[in-house]
Amino acid sequence: QVQLVESGGGLVQAGGSLRLSCAASGRTAGISAMGWYRQAPGKQRVLVATITTGGNTDYGDSVKGRFTISTDNGKNTVFLQMNSLKPDDTAVYYCGARSTIFYWGQGTQVTVSS
Fold first, then answer.
1. What is the dihedral of CA 106, 83, 89, 73, to 10 degrees?
2. In angstroms, rounded to a whole number, what is the distance separating the alpha carbons of residues 35 and 15?
3. Beta bridge mates, 36
4. Coil, strand or helix at 88
5. What is the pLDDT along the chain (114 residues), one digit of tens a residue?
6. Of the candidates 109, 91, 85, 9, the residue with the CA atom closest to the CA atom of residue 44
7. Is the dihedral of CA 73, 112, 13, 15 positive or negative?
8. ∠ CA 13-111-89 to the nearest 5 degrees?
9. CA-based max dimension of the chain
10. 81 exposed, middle or buried (CB, 10 Å; 0-12, 13-18, 19+)?
């Protein structure tokens, strides 16, 4: 089992920044990638950004150039630096980890006011 705990969500004005953190614990040796996904009310959960253990990153089109995913090397923590936030970024942000199965965190709310 892998446990994921997110932190760092909150309320911010448009144009502001937030940094999300996700700490993985448990059977983390099998994790091959971690990432962030978001789900707005009434919409499907979508990719925000992922990073592999090799450092390869991928971003959703709507966040490219504004968000940056990174890891705390060797400490099973992944970060999402979110800059130039827009009201459309409002969603519950979920941390995910790919191992033998896919694990989800409990989610953290990000609200961007206009």
1. -30
2. 23
3. 49, 95
4. helix
5. 999 999 999 999 999 999 999 999 999 999 999 999 999 999 999 999 999 999 999 999 999 999 999 998 766 999 999 999 999 999 999 999 999 999 999 999 999 999
6. 91
7. positive
8. 90
9. 42
10. middle
Q: Residue type for 68, please?
A: T
How many angstroms separate the CA atoms of 86 and 103, rounded? 28
Which of 40, 43, 20, 36 has the alpha carbon at shortest distance from 87? 40
Tokens 């953290």, located at residue: 108
Report whether 48 contacts 67 (CB < 8 A): yes
Which residue has 């990432």 as its token pair? 35
